[in-house]
Specification:
Layout: H1 3-9, H2 12-29, H3 32-51, H4 59-77
Helix pairs in contact: 1-2, 2-3
Length: 92
């Protein structure tokens, strides 16, 4: 997403993340004379992103995530079972 498109959404986090991505691209291609300026601005934007509150998941997403984790943990705890053969009873 471009910085302009992100800014148009009004979402501060998305806008800062788009700016971060653009500055990171520019940093790699920048002439040595402006690398320090870009690095300073990139550092400031990273600090702003880190200071933003963490996005919360919806209750449904949170419960689904917990359920998936529980199922994965339960599968990891179960020892592998050997397949058992059915015994013949002799009364066919």
């Amino acid at each position: 997403m471009s910085a302009a498109a992100a800014a148009a959404t009004g979402d501060r986090r998305k806008t800062l993340e788009a700016m971060r991505d653009k500055l990171a691209q520019d940093f790699d291609a920048a002439p040595p004379a402006v690398v320090a300026q870009i690095a300073g601005r990139l550092s400031a934007i990273l600090a702003e992103i880190e200071a933003l509150p963490v996005e919360r998941k919806s209750t449904i997403d949170e419960l689904a995530s917990r359920r998936t984790d529980r199922i994965a943990a339960a599968k990891a705890e179960q020892p592998a079972r050997k397949p058992t053969r059915q015994r013949r009873t002799g009364s066919d």
